[in-house]
UniProtKB/TrEMBL annotation:
PANTHER family: HISTONE ACETYLTRANSFERASE-RELATED (PTHR11135), PROTEIN YHCC (PTHR11135:SF1). It holds the Pfam family Radical_SAM. InterPro entries: ELP3, Elp3/MiaA/NifB-like_rSAM, Radical_SAM_C, rSAM, rSAM_horseshoe, rSAM_sf, YhcC-like. This is Radical SAM core domain-containing protein. Residues 19-260 form the Radical SAM core domain. It comes from Hallerella porci. Its cofactor is [4Fe-4S] cluster. Keywords: 4Fe-4S, Iron, Iron-sulfur, Metal-binding, S-adenosyl-L-methionine. It comes from the Bacteria. SUPFAM superfamilies: Radical SAM enzymes (SSF102114). Gene3D superfamilies: tm_1862 like domain.
Length: 299
């Protein structure tokens, strides 16, 4: 049965945003910013699962200018995908965490480049003040901007326990202001956080649907080295979802968000040397096929 029957793929979403391109590839960039949840201005030690090294290939490029990063990485993508539209992706840490004039300078090489079709910016719900949204609304008139706002879970208690440093209502309010600024907004969530159950995952899906996200990245809770959760996991303080339970949770999530929300990811992207568990989390194809099987039998 076709995947299109059950959900909107991220490729389909990108095809609508960038109709001039048959395919779109992301170009990860570091804007050289930190995160208010790491540097002490909002929290200390960051989110309990966070190790930027585990998911961003440019986590260590803070001191390299955006222009130099584009010059270094773009040709590598072009060698493989000559005609692809390029979506510059400010990925690691919090990419709106700087005064607005500094942000303008950081983003400019991406918006000015004829090689780049659009810009995605990953950030936190408490880091998009009005002046930043005004800047992004202007940049959005130059080329499409996709603002990625992390939610992770709609359970307030879990948000406190994992040290996110923002509430569900912060997320709802930020997404509403970003939409009012004319931006496309996407999010990411984690299924299987300690203490959560199936109903929590459903509630997270409901918030993603209610806040009209364009796309969502769904990740299983996965444990990476150098995090507080890794220590807690070693002390056996919680268990991870099994492969089957995760796939059931993703299938239910998709049923709730419906086809208005594109599914950008079905699993995590931790690099092997940092991943502790689960060992199946990198097997995207297996996850997608199991989720589609569940969806096809529950119609
Ligand atoms: S907001 Fe993002 S970068 Fe900051 S601590 Fe949490 S996961 Fe890490």
């Amino acid at each position: 049965m076709s995947a299109q029957k059950f959900y909107t793929t991220y490729k389909e979403f990108l095809a609508k945003v960038f109709p001039d391109f048959k395919r779109v590839r992301k170009l990860p960039l570091s804007g050289g910013m930190s995160c208010p949840n790491l540097d002490g201005s909002n929290g200390k030690g960051g989110c309990s699962y966070c190790n930027n090294k585990s998911f961003s290939p440019v986590w260590d490029k803070a001191s390299v200018s955006v222009q130099e990063q584009i010059a270094e990485f773009l040709p590598r993508i072009r060698r493989k995908y000559k005609d692809a539209g390029i979506l510059a992706y400010f990925q690691p840490y919090t990419n709106t965490y700087a005064p607005v004039e500094r942000l303008r300078e950081i983003y400019e090489p991406a918006f000015a480049s004829n090689e780049i079709a659009g810009v995605a910016i990953g950030t936190r719900p408490d880091c998009v003040p009005d002046d930043v949204l005004e800047l992004l609304a202007y940049e959005n008139s130059r080329k499409p901007v996709i603002l990625e706002l992390g939610l992770q879970t709609a359970n307030e208690e879990t948000l406190k326990v994992i040290g996110r440093g923002h509430s569900v209502s912060d997320f709802c309010e930020a997404s509403s202001r970003a939409h009012a600024a004319g931006l496309l907004v996407s999010s990411h969530v984690i299924l299987g956080l300690p203490g959560e159950n199936f109903r929590d995952f459903e509630r997270t899906a409901e918030v993603i649907r209610e806040t009209k996200m364009s796309a969502v990245k769904i990740h299983p809770l996965h444990i990476v080295r150098g995090t507080r959760l890794a220590e807690s996991f070693a002390r056996k303080e919680f268990e991870l979802l099994s492969f089957d339970d995760y796939c059931k949770a993703v299938a239910r999530f998709i049923q709730i968000v419906g086809k208005d929300v594109a599914i950008e990811r079905f699993s995590g992207e931790a690099q092997n040397e940092t991943l502790i568990a689960p060992d199946w989390c990198g097997d995207r194809n297996q996850i997608v096929s199991k989720v589609e099987e569940i969806l096809s039998t529950s119609l």
